């Protein structure tokens, strides 16, 4: 959840509400993050059922490796990217950015955000074409029994589209002066 509602410089008077599109993107990101968490739970349940079946009944759950590889791992990995971007918890190397004045840093990071958003839109486009190709062929694994892969190709589309939207929202926050939120900048605002 993004609690960024005021600039990181200046007096901390009335908080500016975020524009409706940014709030909607944040809500969508939170919903997709819940789906990523569901992927983790389903992964664990799938493996627990497989282990119990293997140990107690000498009958493992068929397709556990395929389900883990093609269903649950893409869910938990791809659907969590936007949430991590929203919370600004991706790893960043900011050695050069830290040397810039705050407003210049916000502009530079906003420009990088525009480039990242464009790249993510392109990745979403290619993920969509890959998902449609898998759908057209009704793609499955070569295992016995075969496991459908094509529905989870759309997980990549959802994940890429959501992080593209969240990257655009983050870019807005940089240009609006709402990011970065660091202790150093927040204490400057408190002192002034």
Characterise this structure.
By secondary structure, this protein is mainly α. The chain is 69% helix and 0% strand. The protein contains 7 helices and no strands. Helix 1 packs antiparallel against helix 2. It is elongated and about 65 Å long. The two termini are 28 Å apart.
Order of helices and strands: HHHHHHH
Gap between N and C termini, in Å? Answer: 28 Å
Instruction: Give the fraction of residues assigned to helices.
Output: 55-70%
Radius of gyration from the CA trace? 21 Å
Low-confidence sequence ranges:
1-13, 183-192
- Structural class by helix and strand composition: mainly alpha
The quaternary state of the protein chains shown equals single chain
Write down the overall mean pLDDT.
Answer: 89
Give the secondary structure arrangement, pairings included:
Layout: H1 20-56, H2 64-78, H3 81-86, H4 95-98, H5 102-137, H6 150-175, H7 183-191
The gist of it:
This protein has helices at residues 20-56, 64-78, 81-86, 95-98, 102-137, 150-175, 183-191.
Short key terms for the protein model shown above:
192 residues, mainly alpha, elongated, disordered N terminus, disordered C terminus
């Amino acid at each position: 959840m993004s609690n960024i509602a005021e600039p990181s410089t200046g007096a901390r008077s009335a908080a500016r509400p975020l524009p409706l599109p940014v709030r909607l993107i944040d809500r969508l990101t939170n919903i997709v993050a819940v789906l990523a968490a569901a992927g983790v739970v389903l992964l664990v349940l799938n493996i627990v059922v497989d282990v119990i079946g293997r140990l107690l009944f000498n009958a493992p759950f068929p397709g556990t490796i395929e389900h883990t590889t093609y269903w649950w791992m893409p869910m938990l990995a791809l659907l969590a990217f936007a949430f991590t971007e929203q919370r600004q918890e991706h790893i960043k190397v900011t050695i050069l950015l830290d040397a810039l004045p705050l407003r210049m840093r916000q502009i530079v990071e906003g420009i990088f955000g525009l480039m990242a958003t464009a790249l993510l839109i392109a990745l979403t486009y290619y993920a969509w074409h890959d998902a449609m190709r898998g759908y057209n062929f009704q793609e499955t694994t070569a295992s016995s029994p075969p496991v459908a892969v094509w529905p989870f190709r759309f997980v990549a589309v959802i994940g890429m589209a959501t992080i593209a939207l969240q990257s655009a929202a983050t870019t807005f926050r940089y240009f609006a002066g709402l990011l970065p939120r660091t202790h150093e900048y927040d204490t400057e605002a408190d002192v002034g």
